[in-house]
Design the sequence.
């Protein structure tokens, strides 16, 4: 493992090797460099299941929609989602509503 590996938690350039772990002096995070973690975007549904691009999800709570007289009802199936790094971390297209951005805490993997 390189001495120049940044901390996966705070991106500090100063972690040091203390066998068998790397330790970050700025945030105190310790990790095993042999266990490489996936540092990509991690989005979880209401049940804690990890979501991926292209998944199908089901709405678990009736959601009001600004500018629309009807809400998105619980049980609505949404196909082919796309994950984004923002507050509303799912981009999708819902029949009858069009393109929407939804928070992952209101859906479950279907």
Sequence:
């Amino acid at each position: 493992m390189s001495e120049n590996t940044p901390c996966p938690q705070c991106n500090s350039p100063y972690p040091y090797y203390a066998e068998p772990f790397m330790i970050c002096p700025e945030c105190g995070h310790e990790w095993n460099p042999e266990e490489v973690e996936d540092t990509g975007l991690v989005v979880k549904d209401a049940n804690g299941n990890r979501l991926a691009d292209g998944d199908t999800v089901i709405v678990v709570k009736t959601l009001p929609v600004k500018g629309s007289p009807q809400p998105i009802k619980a049980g609505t199936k949404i196909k082919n989602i796309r994950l984004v790094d923002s507050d509303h971390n799912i981009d999708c297209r819902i029949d009858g509503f069009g393109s929407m951005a939804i928070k992952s805490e209101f859906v479950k993997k279907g």
